[in-house]
Design goal:
CATH class of the largest domain in chain B: Alpha Beta
Largest sheet of chain B: 6 strands, mixed
Order of helices and strands of chain A: HHHHHHHHHH
Structural class of chain A: mainly alpha
Strand content of chain A: under 5%
Distance between the termini of chain B: 24 Å
Number of domains of chain A: 1
Number of helices of chain B: 7
Shape of chain A: elongated
Number of strands of chain A: 0
Number of domains of chain B: 2
CATH architecture of the largest domain in chain B: 3-Layer(aba) Sandwich
Number of strands of chain B: 10
CATH topology of the largest domain in chain B: Rossmann fold
Order of helices and strands of chain B: EEEHEEEHHHEHEHEEH
Radius of gyration of chain B: 19 Å
CATH superfamily of the largest domain in chain B: P-loop containing nucleotide triphosphate hydrolases
Number of helices of chain A: 10
Radius of gyration of chain A: 23 Å
Oligomer: heterodimer
Largest interface: A-B, 26 and 29 residues
Strand order of the largest sheet of chain B: 6-7-8-3-9-10
Distance between the termini of chain A: 39 Å
Helix content of chain A: over 70%
CATH topology of chain A: MetI-like fold
Largest sheet of chain A: none
Helix content of chain B: 25-40%
Chain lengths: ~250, ~260
């Protein structure tokens, strides 16, 4: 069954590629606007290694930004969430920061951190961290205080209450924050590479667009999609691990 | 029957409350939740605290548990002043079981030990034997979402007992259950109490429940919250449902009923 579904999908993909390629050959598509599959293929043959190493740079930046944004965002959200005064101060600031076009900060980051991966990691981090922190904060805040009282009666420390009781209880909210945040991180990293850098998928897309190498541009786009797909798959893995642990419904 | 008698802890007293008061807020807004509450509980006794809603009985329990500080006065448990939660001496149970939804029944029972980093090889058999005691051995691997209200409270009892406390504090633990289940759980609790011999302080607003379970009943009044009377229940143990219909039970019930009624005005 599964194999059959896979062959059907592959057949559809091949059909689309065939139509696309023949439309190009028939002169219906301008190669500057729309690269054909064959152009992408020849770009891969010609500049494959460059793109592969650029892909590694981009993935490294995304992974680092995810690592920082997830851990700092969740930790901050949990701490602020259990502390009512801090929550009341932070929640509106965080929602405001999500609405700010953070890209205006990028020139400043460049001046501070240079053209290398650091500025991309930092920009990716600040692109994604606010929704993660806000969702965690709101999730923790909405948990009934009875859980905390119960854990305190058992002698749980403040830290144990936060990370062994409140954070897991808030996990559904945290995961939805991670979904949003991670997508923004991938966007932030690729975007910052396109704006100013020396390497990475975004940089090469930008570069080849400037010299009308449409095949290379499309190759870059494909690889950026792959990067987003990998980040998303990592998230789904976490989500699935969680749902295995809950039994059926999560009512207390 | 004297309540305001000596506040000094006597031998055999596990809990002593000395002139405990609690005020919420300050100035003209101040709410006197508890005023000069003094009583003691002997080791191994089953004590119930009964009173109308708003009389501060839950607050009193939280103070005994060390979860809320008293505004004045003090509480001694086993001769030591209570200044914070002391899970090795006191376990608390609430109206809601507050089971962690991602943990199975047995993992929830183990949780207090997990917090104390007791190795799994030690905590698992202890948790299992207590689940067996509350009659849930076969549901050990089920999640809270798959358990009924009564079963959740059984898990909560096991989770209290796994900490091997001297005192069990229970804040209307069966109030959310229907009457049949409440009576069943009461009997179950008495059976467990008789087997483990721990001291129980049980807060409720149900008169029948308060008398049926207790060696001693403290009656609380409202505005300000205070203890207005205490009664010894002379019914034999083990208790049975038929006693509820007996004359002495009815007399005691009426007396408490009128006491609380006068309080309300």
């Amino acid at each position: 069954m599964r194999v059959r579904r896979l062959t059907v999908r592959l057949a559809i993909l091949l059909l689309v590629l065939a139509v696309w390629e023949s439309a190009y050959r028939a002169g219906l598509l301008s190669p500057i606007i729309f690269a054909a599959p064959s152009l992408i293929l020849s770009a891969a043959v010609k500049d494959g290694w460059t793109f592969l190493s650029a892909f590694r740079v981009t993935m490294f930046e995304i992974a680092m930004a995810i690592l920082i944004a997830w851990s700092v965002g969740i930790a901050f959200g949990v701490v602020a969430g259990v502390w009512p005064i801090l929550a009341r101060i932070c929640a509106p600031i965080l929602s405001a920061l999500i609405a700010v076009p953070l890209v205006v900060l990028y020139p400043v980051l460049l001046a501070w951190l240079g053209l290398g991966p650091t500025s991309k990691i930092v920009f990716g981090t600040i692109s994604g961290i606010f929704p993660i922190a806000l969702n965690t904060l709101v999730g923790v805040q909405s948990i009934d205080r009875g859980y905390a009282v119960m854990a305190a009666a058992m002698g749980a420390s403040r830290r144990q209450i936060m990370f062994q009781v409140m954070a897991p209880l808030a996990l559904p909210a945290i995961v939805s924050g991670l979904r949003l945040g991670t997508a923004l991180i991938v966007i932030g990293v690729v975007l910052s590479e396109m704006l100013a850098s020396t390497d990475g998928i975004g940089f090469w897309i930008s570069y080849h667009r400037g010299i009308f190498n449409t095949g290379q541009v499309y190759l870059g786009i494909l690889l950026a999609l792959v990067a987003a797909g990998i980040a998303n798959a990592a998230l789904s893995l976490i989500e699935r691990a969680y749902s295995h642990r809950t039994g059926d419904d999560a009512n207390p | 029957m004297s309540i305001a008698a000596s506040a000094r802890p006597e031998k055999g007293d596990i809990i002593t409350a000395e002139h405990v008061s609690k005020v919420f807020g300050s100035g003209t807004q101040a709410l006197r939740a508890l005023v000069d509450v003094t009583f003691s509980v002997r080791e191994g006794q089953f004590v119930t605290i009964v009173g109308p809603s708003g009389c501060g009985k839950s607050t009193l329990l939280l103070i005994l548990a060390g979860l809320v500080p008293a505004s004045s006065g003090r509480v001694l448990v086993d001769g030591q002043p209570v200044s914070g939660p002391s899970p090795e001496k006191i376990s608390v149970m609430f109206q809601d079981a507050w089971l962690l939804p991602w943990k199975t029944a047995i993992e929830n029972v183990e949780f207090p030990l997990t917090l104390r980093k007791v190795p799994a090889a030690v905590r698992r058999p202890r948790a299992m034997s207590l689940l067996d005691l509350v009659g849930l051995a076969r549901s050990a691997d089920r999640y809270p979402g798959e358990l009924s209200g009564g079963m959740k409270q059984r898990v909560a009892i096991a989770r209290c007992l796994v900490q091997e406390p001297r005192v069990l504090l229970m804040d209307e633990p069966f109030a959310a259950l229907d009457e049949q289940n409440r009576t069943r759980m009461g009997n179950e609790l008495l059976r467990i109490w008789e087997r483990t011999g721990r001291t129980v302080v049980f807060v409720t607003h149900g008169l029948t429940e308060a008398i049926y379970l207790a060696d001693r009943v403290f009656v609380m009044g409202v505005r300000p919250g205070r203890i207005i009377e205490s009664f010894s229940v002379e019914l034999p143990r083990p208790r049975s449902i038929d006693m509820i219909g007996s004359e002495s039970f009815g007399r005691l019930r009426n007396r408490i009923w009128h006491l609380i009624g006068e309080e309300r005005g």
